Amino acid sequence: MTLRIAMAQLDMLVGDITKNTQAVIDAANQARDIEQADVIVFPELTLTGYPPEDLLLRPSLDGRVESALLKILDEVQGIYVVVGYPRRIDGDLFNCTGVIYEGTLLGEYAKQELPNFLVFDEKRYFSEGRDACIVDIKGVKFGLTICEDIWHPGPIAQAKEAGAELILNLNASPFHIEKMGQREALLHQRATEVSLPIVYVNYMGAQDELVYEGGSFVVNARGEKVSQAPWFEAGLYCVDVIVDESQPNKVMPVAGDISPALDVEASVYQAMVLGLRDYINKNRFKGIVLGLSGGIDSALSLAVAVDAIGADRVQAVMMPYTYTSSMSLEDAEEEANLLGVKYSVLPIEPMVSAFSDALAPEFAGFSKDTTEENLQARTRGVVLMAISNKKGLMVLTTGNKSEMAVGYATLYGDMVGGYSVLKDVFKTLVFKLCRYRNSLGYVIPERVISRPPSAELAPDQVDEDSLPSYDVLDEILHMYIEKDLSAEAILATKQFDRDTVYRVLRLVDVNEYKRRQAPTGVRITARGFGRDRRYPITNGWHIGD
């Protein structure tokens, strides 16, 4: 006998239970009628989307979920539906998956391992399940697990003991660099521990800072990957399972298509595109406006914006001032032309002069300093927000993680905006991503990539006048932010200049207040500048203690 399982790698909208439910029904009917599937498996918390956060505390949640389940029970026939949802049982809320067939809920499983670290805070909402759930589907005993359950040996071993012959694992596992390989190694380990095949179905789409890259896959009882759905593509992806009672492992997934692995640059770029696209479209913005400086960060941000939503929905604005070089003007225009976006040049010198004249009485007796530089950045922020208000376009900020980490950004200036695709991208990776994007089609002028970065807020200014080289800076930041190493541990790891390390760490700590006010953006590392990082703004911690 052969069973066909459809992995529903879909993009849901958090909170839109009605729309998500209809998507489940449509996908189930498609899997049955077109793919000839016996079973369709959806990701974790499909009906609410993931993460629903405090929507789980809304009084009407229970009724909405029950109505959704009744609708699926009533409208889907001829295929087994395995779907995730929140469910209140005896007063406690659980993260559940249920198996529905011919109007009946055949079984229901409650997630046992609740993640409560980094971006996850499931213990805020859910109670822990305790029991295995085994459902017989055409003579095969399916064991149900949900996401974090697979990262621990207990739930899958419990399912095996209860008689499972194949494990289904429903996931909403967000992207970060190297996560793809970690999942594959993990499933190899779990499958070999219990000698069972595992079907791993992952969410696809983006929710605020989190991106889910799909990549659903199947391993056999020896932990060998036999099927892999595409990365960053929604759809139904099927795997056939042979059931042979004469074999020691009677359930054997058939080898199918395996989508090739993506390198770091390709996966990060696609994550940024998907994150921005879903943010713009799910929040119903007409399009994007961004400041195009002629520098590398805004060039990469523009390319991502066009790839995400199309050139016809993107406007780039060059806002030159006295210190803007002719090279920057030329490069910004070339970038806009190469990508085919609406392009405007709005000189800010008259506006800066008006501000300076108005502030002259307040500034009397003070020498010029970074205040005047910040005034330029803040004027540009005013211009972009005015265009945003008038045209209904979202301002895309263009600062990278290296700059934001050390506060090399201006509040209410270049930090103004609704979203940032480079929020979690170190400067050294920005250079690599530009070269990657140009390998797909030339859109970023070579000299934008090769010339020294500059904010152009003062004569002959370059970033490394104020900062260490980005190679050094990013390595220190990686160890401090993502590895949580102390100053002395960093110095023991590599021969950095002591004063440089202490200065960088101090800059990171004192600029926490800025990062709290920065727009959300795509998370691409295991420790992003969003929900991952929760350091107190006001504190008396001393570096080096």
TrEMBL record:
Its EC number is 6.3.5.1. It comes from the Bacteria. Pfam families: CN_hydrolase, NAD_synthase. Deamido-NAD(+) binds at N374, E403, K514. ATP binds at G291, L292, S293, G294, G295, I296, D297, S298, T398. Keywords: ATP-binding, Ligase, NAD, Nucleotide-binding. It catalyses: deamido-NAD(+) + L-glutamine + ATP + H2O = L-glutamate + AMP + diphosphate + NAD(+) + H(+). GO terms for cellular component: cytoplasm. The active site is at E44 (proton acceptor), K111 (for glutaminase activity), C147 (nucleophile). GO terms for molecular function: ATP binding; glutaminase activity; NAD+ synthase (glutamine-hydrolyzing) activity; NAD+ synthase activity. GO terms for biological process: NAD+ biosynthetic process. Pathway: Cofactor biosynthesis; NAD(+) biosynthesis; NAD(+) from deamido-NAD(+) (L-Gln route): step 1/1. Residues 3-243 form the CN hydrolase domain. NCBIfam families: nadE, PRK13981.1. This is Glutamine-dependent NAD(+) synthetase. It comes from Marinomonas spartinae. The gene is nadE.
